[in-house]
């Protein structure tokens, strides 16, 4: 699905030099590269504070901890996402309230949000799924109306732009109270191990977040709150500092591959290609289609036999996962989410795909669809 080795080969000298510099300095924890990468990412995102951490899941958990939510408080989010988004809500004793998504964007449906709000609702986590932004202008309008915090899960959409109705254009992850991202190796901006970060323009929240990720400390050995140990490794920061320079190029290459797929499949009545919402661009962390009147498992197996990986993100929505049975989600009805879980399939999406590979993939998909 992602050819990380070929991508590394194109920037090998820069990466090797960056890693060697960390080893030479022996500043393996909170070394200079961590602060330098954070400053570079602040500039790229045009945001006041970037606080690196150990992984994207920690970023989401720390964001909720920083908001000082209490057990039983409700957090609205999507069921059609990776479990980390909801996992951290449950781990903190909060109550996940799962609502449906839009059939075209796969993102949280703002029209369903207000009816899910109760006196216990304290926060919303919109997930910018597969590489494009949720409808943040409408989500922020609702959040402001009910005085709710907004934590953006932009683990799959770093680098995507959101355009407000007044023309203002900003990066995903910089609109809500806190943005969270992952630097898992397969992400658009991926490390060579785990990593994550939180973003905010709020000085007070930034101070709290910095304390939480460092055992609740501001001053060494003086613990103001219960925190966690969640640090971005210096070697990973050095790698990310190099790769950040190429993030927009990577997004451009992913868009070229997506355009190739879109053109190849545009006349097929068996495939619904991804729809990009009018208010956002798409960085195509995944290229995810909806299959129609074909055997999805059969297509996946057919592609596997031709050495083409294809993945199902996500086969079981979170409201049907065994881990959440205790929360009485069996009675929750999310028809769009259920339909997407039963029909979506994702094709290889990476910066190194060339036309020959794309032709091979698309011809195989169409061959199966025409059977």
Explained architecture:
The chain is α/β, with parallel strands linked by helices and 371 residues long. The protein folds into 2 domains: 4-99 and 107-244, Aspartate Aminotransferase, domain 2; 247-369, Aspartate Aminotransferase, domain 1 (Alpha-Beta Complex). Helix content is 37%, strand content 15%. It has 12 helices and 14 strands. The protein has helices at 4-10, 12-25, 32-45, 56-66, 84-91, 136-146, 203-212, 234-244, 247-265, 296-305, 335-343, 355-369, and strands at residues 49-53, 74-78, 95-99, 121-125, 149-153, 161-163, 169-171, 178-182, 196-200, 217-219, 222-223, 271-272, 287-291, 344-347. Helix 2 packs antiparallel against helix 8 (234-244) and helix 4 crosses helix 7. The model has no long low-confidence stretch (mean pLDDT 96).
């Amino acid at each position: 699905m992602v050819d990380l080795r070929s991508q590394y080969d194109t920037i090998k000298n820069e990466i090797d030099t960056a890693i060697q510099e960390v080893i030479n300095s022996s500043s393996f924890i909170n070394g200079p590269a961590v602060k330098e990468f954070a400053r570079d990412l602040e500039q790229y995102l045009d945001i006041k504070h970037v606080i690196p951490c150990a992984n994207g899941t920690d970023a989401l958990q720390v964001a909720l901890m920083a908001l000082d939510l209490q057990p039983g408080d409700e957090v609205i989010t999507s069921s059609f996402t990776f479990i980390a988004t909801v996992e951290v809500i449950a781990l903190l004793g909060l109550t996940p309230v799962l609502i449906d998504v839009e059939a075209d964007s796969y993102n949280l449906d703002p029209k369903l949000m207000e009816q899910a709000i109760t006196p216990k609702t304290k926060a919303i986590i919109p997930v910018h799924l597969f590489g494009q932004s949720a409808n943040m202008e409408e989500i922020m309008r609702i959040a402001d109306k009910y005085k709710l915090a907004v934590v953006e899960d932009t683990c799959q959409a770093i680098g995507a732009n959101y355009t407000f109705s007044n023309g203002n254009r900003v990066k995903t992850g910089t609109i809500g109270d806190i943005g969270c991202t992952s630097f898992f190796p397969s992400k658009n901006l991926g490390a060579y191990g785990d990593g994550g970060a939180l973003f905010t323009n709020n000085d007070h929240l930034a101070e709290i977040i910095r304390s939480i990720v460092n055992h609740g400390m501001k001053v060494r050995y003086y613990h103001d709150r219960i925190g966690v140990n969640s640090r971005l490794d210096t070697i990973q920061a050095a790698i990310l500092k190099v790769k950040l320079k190429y993030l927009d190029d990577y997004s451009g290459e992913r868009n070229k591959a997506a355009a190739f797929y879109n053109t190849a499949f545009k006349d097929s009545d068996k495939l619904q290609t991804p729809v990009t919402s009018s208010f956002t661009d798409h960085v195509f962390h995944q290229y995810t289609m909806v299959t129609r009147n074909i055997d999805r498992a059969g297509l996946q197996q057919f592609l596997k036999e031709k050495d083409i990986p294809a993945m199902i993100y996500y086969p079981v929505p979170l409201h049907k996962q065994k881990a959440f049975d205790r929360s009485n989600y069996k009675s929750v009805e999310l028809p769009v989410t259920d339909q997407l879980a039963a029909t979506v399939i994702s094709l290889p999406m990476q910066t190194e795909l060339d036309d020959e590979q794309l032709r091979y993939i698309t011809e195989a998909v169409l061959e199966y669809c025409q059977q």
